[in-house]
Amino acid sequence: MARGADAVPPKPGPALYPELSLGIPEETLPSGRREKRTLAHWVTHIREQEMPALGATVALIHSVADDEKASTNHLAQVILQDAAMTAKVLKLANSALYNPSRQTVSTISRAIVVLGFNVVVEIAVAIRLVDALLAGGVRKRVIEEMARGFHAAVQARSLASMRRDGRSEEVFIAALLSRVGDMAFWCFGGTVAQCLDEVLKAGGQTSDEAQMSVLGFRLRQLTAGLAREWKLGPLLLSVVEGGGRGGPEQAIVFGQRLAVEVESGWDAPGTRKLIEEMASFAGVAPEALRETLAENGMEAARIVSYFGAPEVAHRIPQAGRIAAEEPVAVDDALTPDPHLQLRILREISGRIAAGANLNEILNLVLEGIYRGVGFDRVLFALLSRNRLQLIGKTALGAGAEGLRQRFIFSLDDTPGDLFNEFFRNPRALRLGAGQTPPVLRVDRLQLVTNTTLACIAPIQVQGRAIGMFYADRLNPARGLDDETFEAFQLFAQQVSLAVTAAASARQTQ
Asked: How far is 206 from 169, CA to CA, in rounded Å?
């Protein structure tokens, strides 16, 4: 039985096995013989069936961004749960677009310091969007729209910066997402998208006319609906709905127009005329602006590769050859990396010397153990005020949030229990076959963690243990060698050093 959403194939014959249709009606045809799916239906379909992961990620990231009490540590933890996103954020943080001074950024915590909290939030949302939209559909159209989006975003950001607009980063993400409805439709529209593609290829109608005849609405309305559902920001809605034409909105509109116009050539009459308008808007000479815009086009092609879409880069028209940019090494595999360990340890030392707060150091230590030493999960736990419970506070890695919630252990005088003995005699321990001290029982820990391969180390203040670091590997074949155990201990010791430094600083004040 044909399930084409709104295609215009020949009229199908009777189903070969009608009993297998399960009563599912055929989807509508654009001729009007059946009612078209509404705009609200499309918004719900994309949000709930095609891109639920994006919606969940956007909601989680925005919950951090909207919380005035949220710290950089919280945002870093959200990003670090996804190794692929972590790698892409770090690549972008080391790119010329976001980091023109070329400071080496090795950790997510440092990326937030260098780029700013809001910029990292916007990058994370854009990464998840790109990942969701590279799934297929009418691929040529998806890639075309994405190329225009990235090109428009880089150009709009540049224009906003020229005008010294403090919202240049918000402009970038709003421009990038300004055609999210188009991209989502071409990716997930099925036979309806194929039908619209054929109508557009046939010519005779403008894009808006074709959209109205096939869909009954324009794709920019779908963008507006998704922007509201995912709370993508008032600037994006203002642009999509044709609202205000202030500086940021106008920069985005110019970026969008240029991304389309240069497809006819950088020296085409239409492009030259548009650049003159943009020069007046930016307050610079047209020839100088053209040179900047051409460089922006090259930068857009480079940056789109960092977002994980290199094939999109080839669709961005260039005024010249793209100069190769020396890549900054960023490791996405969670395997031991001594070089990354050293970079993070240096960063921790620098932050301690600069008087950074303990939470910032703690987050760097967690990231160092997780990414540098190469554990599957890492967790920080503290004793309760009455020292009768050990409670998980922060965790990174696969299923880390569930582990944190389960990581609650009561302490008493029971001899031989791992946690009771650990806090009587705080010391780093390696747990596993042939490595766990025979006098210790680890049954409570294994019941919660479901693994036998782990390390623990105390967090001490003035010689008294107040908590612990826990890190594990889920695959027993990976093992825990001496080098891994030593690196784990070295990172864990940094928190105690930070506490001692902070106490010394208070005494000298």
From this structure: 33
Q: 379: which strand partners?
A: 395, 470
Residue 386 lies in a domain: yes
CB atoms within 10 A of CB 26: 14
**Count of CB atoms within 10 A of residue 11's CB?**
6
Tokens of 434: 């042939």
Q: Note whether 140 and 72 are same-domain residues.
A: yes
Distance (Å, rounded) from C-alpha 98 to C-alpha 362?
26
> Residues 6 or more apart from 9 whose CB is under 8 A from it?
2
The tally of domains found in the chain comes to 2
Cα 351-352-356 angle, rounded to 5 deg: 65
Complete edge-to-edge strand list for the sheet that includes strand 429-431 = 408-410, 389-397, 377-383, 464-472, 454-461, 429-431
Nearest C-alpha neighbor of 276 from the set 254, 259, 298, 256: 254
Same-domain check for residues 342 and 206: no
Amino acid at 42: W
Residues 307 and 351 in one domain: no
pTM above 0.70, yes or no: no
Which two tokens mark 144? 């075309």
* Vertex 140 angle, CA 253 and 207, to 5°: 50
Tens of pLDDT along 327-376?
444 444 467 889 999 999 999 998 888 888 888 888 899 999 999 999 99
Residue of 91, 5, 88, 82 whose CA lies nearest to 42: 5
User: Exposed/middle/buried for 440, CB within 10 Å: 0-12, 13-18, 19+?
Assistant: middle
133 occurs within a structural domain = yes
Of 313, 348, 369, the domain-final residue: 313
pLDDT tens digits, one per residue of 99-141: 887 778 889 988 888 888 878 887 888 888 788 787 667 788 8
Spatial CB neighbours of 304, under 8 Å, sequence gap ≥ 6: 146, 147, 150, 310, 312, 313, 316
Alpha-carbon gap, residue 362 to 149, rounded angstroms: 38
Query: Cα(first)–Cα(last) distance of the chain, in Å?
Result: 80
Pairing of strands 454-461, 389-397: unpaired
Residue-range definition of the domain harbouring residue 161 = 39-313
Structure tokens at 193: 């998208």
Same domain, 270 and 392: no
- Backbone φ and ψ of 308, nearest 5°: 95, 25
402 burial level (CB within 10 Å; 0-12, 13-18, 19+): exposed
Q: How far apart are CA 71 and CA 62, in angstroms?
A: 13
Q: Does the residue 30 lie in any domain?
A: no
Instruction: Report the C-alpha gap between 120 and 125 in whole angstroms.
Output: 9
E strands of 89-179, at which residues?
A: none
Q: Fill in the DSSP letter of residue 335.
A: S
Q: Are 269 and 411 found together in one domain?
A: no
Verify that 294 and 409 share a domain, yes or no: no
